[in-house]
Amino acid sequence: MTDTKQLTIGVLAIQGDYEAHARALQAAGAKTVEVRKPEQLDGLDGLAMPGGESTTMLKFLERDEFFETLQKFLKTTPCFATCAGVILLAKRVLHPEQASLGLLDATVERNAYGRQIDSTILMQQTKLEGGPLEMVFIRAPRITHVDKGVEVLAERDGFPVLVRQGNILAATFHPEISPDTRVQKLFLEMVRAAKK
Ligand code: GLN
After folding, report:
1. What is the pTM of this model?
2. Which protein residue's CA is at the shortest distance from atom 2 of ligand 1?
3. Is residue 142 lining ligand 1, measured as CB closer than 6 Å?
4. Which of 28, 110, 131, 132 could join 184 in a cystine, given CB atoms 3.0 to 4.6 angstroms apart?
5. Which of the four pLDDT bands, split at 50, 70 and 90, describes residue 1?
6. Which atom of ligand 1 is nearest to the CA of 57?
7. What is the pLDDT of residues 68-122, one digit of tens each?
8. Is 52 in the pocket of ligand 1 (CB under 6 A)?
9. What is the atom index within ligand 1 of the atom nearest the CA of 84?
10. Distance (Å) of CA 69 to CA 63, 99, 165
11. How far is CA 108 from CA 10, 91, 111, in A?
């Protein structure tokens, strides 16, 4: 029997395109809650970490032990990260080096595709069913290395752009601003599976 209970997904709402994440997750069938304080993580089924500026988000996370609380929370709760969110999650961040939660076994190079003007929209094949996926890249980081245990679901020019590791789903592009909700639906399936 399929579980029809609506999932509650927090959206880290410090900065960046968290409203787009909330809208896309709602379109995929979830209830969403904006998270601005560590105590708001309590009781959530999953968390989305949006695109934006990872340095700005990091500064904010330094307050009230938000960083440590988030790190602990994400060890047991599924997370969907895009762009700056992936930078926050990665184990190693380059260009320049910066602190991160260290939960995704990957090396990420910030702003690796050039400047704002080099942002681009591509239609790419992925391992998801349903044909090519629209991928919006905005000052995107590049995943230059993944450790064993990270499944690559899509690539751009030979580099991973959509990856999964356990309860983490991470995209260097922005599925939240495309009309296609397949990536969100995959995340909600992961959240549902983690609850069982
Ligand atoms: N360049 C941003 C950073 O380094 C990420 C860009 C994005 O999230 N669209 O944090």
Report:
1. 0.96
2. 53
3. no
4. 28
5. very low
6. 10
7. 999 999 999 999 999 999 999 999 999 999 999 999 999 999 988 876 667 899 9
8. yes
9. 8
10. 11, 15, 20
11. 24, 8, 10
Q: Which residues of 105-135 are buried (b: 16+ CB within 10 A; e: fewer)?
A: bbbbbbebbeeeeeeeeeeeebebeeeebeb
The one-letter code for the residue type at 29 is G
Rounded distance, CA 184 to CA 126, Å? Answer: 14
Tokens at residue 64, please?
Answer: 């009230």
CB 38 within 8 A of CB 69: yes
Quick check: CB of 112 below 6 Å from ligand 1? no
Positions marked active-site: 83, 174, 176
What is the third-level CATH fold of 4-195?
A: Rossmann fold (3.40.50)
Task: Return the best residue to mutate from 139, 143, 161, 177 for the ligand 1 pocket (most ligand atoms within 8 A of CB).
Answer: 139
Q: Which of 83, 94, 117 to mutate to test the pocket of ligand 1 (most atoms within 8 A of CB)?
A: 83
Ligand 1 atom nearest 55 alpha carbon: 10
Residue 85 · residue 49 · CB < 8 Å = yes
CB burial readout 55-67, b (16+ within 10 A) else e: eebbeebeeeebb
For residue 77, how far is the Cα from the chain centroid? 13
- Cα separation of 82 and 94, whole Å? 17
